[in-house]
Specification:
The protein has 74 residues and is mainly α. The protein contains 3 helices and no strands. It is globular, with a radius of gyration of 15 Å.
């Protein structure tokens, strides 16, 4: 299986909103715990180690790209 990077949601904004709302009222530590739990639940749902590895690499690359953009703006 290959990692899907296009939206699979009919209403992607609703998915984003649900994640943001789940964090409302949480401390930074609680928010980080929620993120970690959500990642583990979704990784288990995927159930494919190669897809999980692809997702990890993509997330790391996006994080690094975002950091580079911030540094260039400073």
């Amino acid at each position: 299986m290959r990692l899907s990077t296009s939206s699979n949601f009919t209403k992607p904004d609703d998915a984003f909103r649900a994640i943001v709302e789940a964090h409302r009222g949480l401390s930074d530590a609680e928010s980080a715990d929620l993120d970690a739990a959500l990642v583990l639940v979704l990784a288990n749902h995927i159930g494919d180690i190669e897809v999980l590895r692809q997702a990890i690499e993509l997330a790391k690359q996006r994080m690094l790209d975002g950091q580079q953009q911030q540094q260039q703006q400073q």
